[in-house]
Amino acid sequence: MGVEVSVEGLTKSFGSQNIWRDVTLTLPEGEVSALLGPSGTGKSVFLKALIGLLHPEQGSVIVDGTDITKCSSKELYEIRKLFGVLFQDGALFGSMSLFDNTAFPLREHTKKSESDIRSIVMEKLDLVGLSDAGDKLPGEISGGMRKRAGLARALVLDPQIILCDEPDSGLDPVRTAYISQLLIDINAEIDATILIVTHNINIARTIPDNIGMLFRKELVMFGPREVLLTSEEPAVKQFLSGDRFGPIGMSEEKDDATAAQEKELEDAGIGGGGTKDDFSEIIPQVQPNPGMPERKASARHRERVEEMLHELPENAQQAIRESQSQEDEIRRANAEGMDRQNNKGGNGNGNNGGGNGNNGGVNTEKQYAGSNDNTEQFPAYRAGGNPAGNS
Ligand SMILES: Nc1ncnc2c1ncn2[C@@H]1O[C@H](COP(=O)(O)OP(=O)(O)OP(=O)(O)O)[C@@H](O)[C@H]1O
Ligand SMILES: [Mg+2]
């Protein structure tokens, strides 16, 4: 069962350099949230503040009823067992094999036997596609493999809260699709609360229930993905479309001269190179693989969105309604596909596509089951598009 993480008025500086101030947000229990923001805005610092590795000078972080910014180190040690963390650089111990790195939290925090530890570690390494690499040292493998090993280690205690700092960085598009799907499946299985820091807009568009964005030392927005994805907030819009023109510059704050120059170019009909995707359409959220339980968070999230729907502009309301009905259709198709598979007496796993029909994200063409499909048996299992495509 996931745990809510409630952040109130959090402010962090290093010496005289303020990183962000007055950040307030709640990671709803069992939901998947994503944190976006230009490089250097303090996303990784935020993640570290959530587990008490860095000490904010103001505000609180309440986890399971305890304010981790003020509790004793003994309490903090206990609270940390709820977390699984994938650090941006993987943070593996260089002198330990991947197996021992992955086993580390189990040896540190549990009294499990070595044979139990072995079976858990091998299961997690297998989940991230590294079952053959257990003997390797971090220095002997690729960056993407280190990232996946870091994820295996983050999952090994079946954490109730999972923090992932750029799980996709250094991964190829196919591995990114698998890792994204894995996070959704884990969420469905154990209802863990998940926070993903990412620059990958396709992940942001298709994986989380909620999105937040840090910019200019503040949390610009945090809320249901549907609201952010249809937002007219200039920094959010610019970030999502990856355009040069807008409030975000090469160094975070754009100087007036650059802004004026770009305005002239824009007026002359010259674009800033961003994607021309139509952001008024919300791509349906990736669903758990067929055979997985329903995500418990879905219903709670839907309820929250319903409550705020009337406050949103008409076009946003319409986009949300459409994506909701597409998601319902995907779920129905997945369930039907599973039924058919079971009745056929097949091998039961049913996941022959590595995706579930909507984990595309690049094509705004609606990729839900039944649309222009040529895999008759399992319309919903058609491998999706390419979730990392435009990262
Ligand atoms: N331990 C530290 N001591 C001093 N300054 C730090 C420390 N850790 C981070 N910073 C500073 O905090 C700022 C935010 O860093 P952070 O790593 O959180 O950015 P980020 O948003 O994760 O960027 P990216 O997208 O590139 O990973 C940077 O200016 C960085 O130099
Ligand atoms: Mg970072």
Automatic annotation (TrEMBL):
<feature type="compositionally biased region" description="Basic and acidic residues">
    <location>
        <begin position="328"/>
        <end position="342"/>
    </location>
</feature>
<keyword id="KW-0813">Transport</keyword>
<dbReference type="InterPro" id="IPR017871">
    <property type="entry name" value="ABC_transporter-like_CS"/>
</dbReference>
<feature type="compositionally biased region" description="Basic and acidic residues">
    <location>
        <begin position="303"/>
        <end position="313"/>
    </location>
</feature>
<dbReference type="GO" id="GO:0005524">
    <property type="term" value="F:ATP binding"/>
</dbReference>
<protein>
    <submittedName>
        <fullName>ABC transporter ATP-binding protein</fullName>
    </submittedName>
</protein>
<feature type="region of interest" description="Disordered">
    <location>
        <begin position="267"/>
        <end position="391"/>
    </location>
</feature>
<keyword id="KW-0547">Nucleotide-binding</keyword>
<feature type="compositionally biased region" description="Polar residues">
    <location>
        <begin position="364"/>
        <end position="377"/>
    </location>
</feature>
<feature type="domain" description="ABC transporter">
    <location>
        <begin position="5"/>
        <end position="241"/>
    </location>
</feature>
<dbReference type="InterPro" id="IPR003439">
    <property type="entry name" value="ABC_transporter-like_ATP-bd"/>
</dbReference>
<keyword id="KW-0067">ATP-binding</keyword>
<feature type="compositionally biased region" description="Gly residues">
    <location>
        <begin position="345"/>
        <end position="360"/>
    </location>
</feature>
<dbReference type="InterPro" id="IPR003593">
    <property type="entry name" value="AAA+_ATPase"/>
</dbReference>
<dbReference type="Pfam" id="PF00005">
    <property type="entry name" value="ABC_tran"/>
</dbReference>
<dbReference type="InterPro" id="IPR027417">
    <property type="entry name" value="P-loop_NTPase"/>
</dbReference>
